[in-house]
Amino acid sequence: MPKTFLKLDWFTIILFVLLVGFGWINIYSTSVTNLEASWLDFNEIHGKQLLWIALSVILIVLVLALEVKFYQQFSSLIYLGALLSLVGLLFFGKTVAGQTAWYSFGSFSIQPAEFVKAAVALAMAKYLTGINIHLKNLKHQVQALFIIAIPMLLILLQPDAGSALIYVAFIIPMYREGLPDLYLVLGIFAALIFVLTLKFGLYYISFVIILIAFLVYFFNRNKKPKLFNYVLLTLLCVGFSVSVGFIYKQLQPHQKDRFDLILGKIDDISGKGYNTYQGKVAIGSGGWSGRGWLNGTHTQGNFVPEQHTDYIFVTVGEEWGFVGSSLVVLLFVFLMIRLVYLAERQKSAFSRIYGYSVVGIIFFHFFVNIAMVLGLFPTVGIPLPFFSYGGSSLWGFTILIFIFLKMDAKRMDV
After folding, report:
1. Conformational region of residue 178, where left means phi above 0, alpha means psi within -120 to 50, and beta covers everything else
2. How many CB atoms lie within 10 A of CB 375?
3. How many C-beta atoms surround the C-beta of residue 401 within 10 A?
4. pTM of the model
5. Nearest residue to 241 (alpha-carbon basis) of 217, 267, 208
6. Is the C or the N end of the chain the one with fewer CB within 10 Å?
7. Residue pair 396/115 in contact by the 8 Å Cβ criterion
8. From which residue to which does any coiled coil extend (predicted)?
9. Residue 274, CB-side half-sphere exposure with 13 Å CA sphere
10. pLDDT digits (tens, 9 = 90+) for 103-130
């Protein structure tokens, strides 16, 4: 164990500690009104989070104590256990705000979805390193996507669309391992068509799709492109645009409201858009250097409900300003760049794939959460890693990172 600690990437650990520490400082700010409040009051949010942080140290030791071979050999069983934990919620889960996503143990609750991500990352690494598995093969692509789809569907049954959305992050390690560009292109096009159809309507977008297809074909006619391929692709795009209305009708009312707000179809700053509006006002009031720790009027006045969870970045913007917000963004960027560097230096494909899975998960959480707070993305229940209150989220990311750091420390032994 001592040798393992010496071989750990301490630059990543320092970034981890800085993010967790600064995250707790902001959680503290959302739950107290003066500096004289006890830091160790476990009846308060900041006290509970401090307890989760302390217990994370024990968790880190346990994660590092296990050999890398354990994660490789038992990845399938870990994945199966993770799926069973999600299935169990349907029978024994605690329902909060309409979501049955937690197991309750007295005054504490555990959200399995936060831990399942590590299990899926291990399962994905195990599958993609199997004998004769190639992501250029359609069958193997479908099987890999199936590994991701099962937990996504189980999480959607809770229902928790935000946590399910994060599993799109596994496209990043799959893309690194050879997934064709076509999937990325189709995904981007599908997202654009979906949003633009909701914004401008079916007929307008269908006309634009047909016009673009005609112009592309016309300017490439000298290359003798196959007309059938252009017609087929155009019909598929228009068909998807037609399906947007059906998909939209299947959304819950609050999910429809979130899309309508972000697209500017409704303007309700005192009702449906209250959180986003107040959040942007608070961040804007922070200015260049912020109002100062514990001096945020919106934070101390609880203008943004549940600010200590998904909207914790509002506190950063208001009390630490542009400088503090930029520092937080840079810390996340440095962490992700470092993890990519570590992933690329791995001697085994299993460790590399797992490392890219960690990067993808952190990136999606980071990007979607901040975009949501800034009103650039619909409001979904996605926490900001290391910052948002919650033991499950903190432990989930701790497990993700330190399993990978263990792999990196043992990379020369492969």
Report:
1. left
2. 17
3. 26
4. 0.89
5. 208
6. N
7. yes
8. none
9. 10
10. 988 777 889 999 999 999 999 999 999 8
Q: Phi then psi for 103, rounded to 5 degrees?
A: -100, 130
> Letter for the amino acid at 247?
I
Distance CA 261, CA 276 (A): 9
Four-CA torsion 23, 26, 27, 33, nearest 10 degrees: 160
* C-alpha to C-alpha distance for 167 and 152, rounded to whole angstroms: 7
Element holding 397 (H helix, E strand)? helix 391-409
Residue scoring higher pLDDT (240 or 176):
176
Task: Pick the more confident residue, 180 or 267.
Answer: 180
Residue with tokens 């928790």: 160
Domain boundaries, position 159: 2-413
Give me the amino acid identity at 413. Answer: D
pLDDT digits (tens, 9 = 90+) for 290-317: 888 877 776 766 767 677 888 888 889 8
The CA distances from residue 216 to 71, 219, 251, 371, in Å, are 49, 5, 35, 33
Query: Virtual CA dihedral for 195, 201, 202, 204, nearest 10 degrees?
Result: -110
For 100, the 3-state DSSP assignment is strand
Mean pLDDT of all residues belonging to the chain: 85
* DSSP H or E stretch at residue 105: strand 99-105
Residue 399, C-beta contacts closer than 8 angstroms, at least 6 positions apart: 59, 63, 115, 118
Render the burial of 269-292: b for 16+ CB within 10 Å, e for the rest.
eeebbebbbbbbbbbebbeeebbe
Q: How many domains does the chain have?
A: 1
Give the other-Cβ count within 10 Å of 14's Cβ: 13
The encoded tokens of residue 407 equal 């792999």
* Preceding amide of 159 cis, omega within 30: yes
Residue 133 · residue 140 · CB < 8 Å:
yes
The full length of the chain comes to 414
3-state secondary structure of 5: helix
DSSP string, 19-70: HHHHHHHHHHHHH-SSTTS-TT-TTSHHHHHHHHHHHHHHHHHHHHHS-HHH
pLDDT tens-digit series, residues 190-233: 888 888 888 888 888 888 888 888 887 777 767 666 777 778 88
| Type of residue numbered 370 | I
Peptide bond preceding 112 in cis form (omega within 30 of 0): no
